[in-house]
Design a protein that fits this description.
Elements lengths: L11 H6 L1 H19 L17 H28 L2 H37 L9 H21 L4 H25 L25 H39 L1
Helix pairs in contact: 2-7, 3-4, 3-6, 3-7, 4-5, 4-7, 5-6
Length: 245
């Protein structure tokens, strides 16, 4: 008589599959605690002071925005190669996660600018019309238009094809808006010198790196978690529709 080998813990299998979710929670808990408590350099010349702690939150948001828009771009291309509706679903859900991080990045950036740019120049506020802000806002509006475009079409195949093409152009436009155009003009953006919006090495000492890189990974895993939930909800809705038809 055969005996079944049951797992020692009834949640063993689910925990084994969700290790990255646990890792995300651990990393973000660490980032939030360490981000507000570790020693940071006081950069009086740059007007950053203790607001440099926002580096652990603001910059990872933009990094992950680009990561998820890139994945959405990849699946848009995959969809156009074979018109598999699964790739269209993945593309739009990754784009949603990308726009989620872009909104968080804009909010944390405006809060940072409200203090540092006012201290540095005597003028400022959450929105100053800085080239970096303007270009980021344009990129966000382009992606918001992507969702409006999808919502205006009922035919699934037509919606998938047109929105996939738009997604590709949106990503191609986002790259110069975020990384090229701000380098061509003067900017107040932290770490900028002569219009270079890149992160200055002096802004990130070894202790800060121990928080910054886990922050990037933790927020990325959180985005994957959201994506996983969205895809599962989409599939459940599809199954419910099939049963009701």
């Amino acid at each position: 008589m055969k005996t079944e080998h049951l797992p020692l813990c009834p949640y063993y299998s689910s925990m084994k599959l969700a290790w990255w979710k646990i890792l995300s929670a651990v990393l973000l808990t660490y980032v939030i605690i360490a981000g507000f408590t570790i020693h940071t350099p006081t950069l009086e010349s740059g007007g950053l002071l203790q607001t440099i702690r926002n580096l652990f939150f603001h910059v990872p948001m933009w990094f992950n925005m680009v990561f998820f828009f890139s994945i959405s771009f990849y699946y848009a291309i995959r969809y156009l190669r074979g018109f598999n509706p699964e790739f269209d679903a993945r593309s739009v859900e990754f784009a949603k996660i990308g726009i989620f991080f872009s909104v968080l990045g804009m909010i944390t950036g405006m809060e940072w600018a409200n203090f540092t740019w006012t201290t540095k120049t005597g003028r400022g506020g959450p929105w100053t019309g800085d080239p970096k802000q303007i270009c980021a806002a344009i990129a966000m509006l382009i992606y918001f238009a992507y969702f409006i475009l999808r919502g205006g079409m009922k035919d699934e195949e037509k919606r998938g094809r047109i929105s996939a093409v738009y997604n590709i152009f949106a990503f191609v436009l986002m790259v110069p808006l975020i990384y090229i155009i701000p380098r061509m003009v003067d900017s107040l953006h932290p770490g900028s010198e002569g219009g270079n919006p890149g992160m200055n090495p002096k802004d990130l000492d070894p202790m800060m790196r121990l928080v910054f890189y886990p922050a990037v990974i933790g927020w990325f895993l959180l985005g994957l978690w959201f994506y996983n939930l969205k895809i599962r909800m989409r599939r459940l809705n599809h199954q419910l529709q099939e049963h009701t038809d």
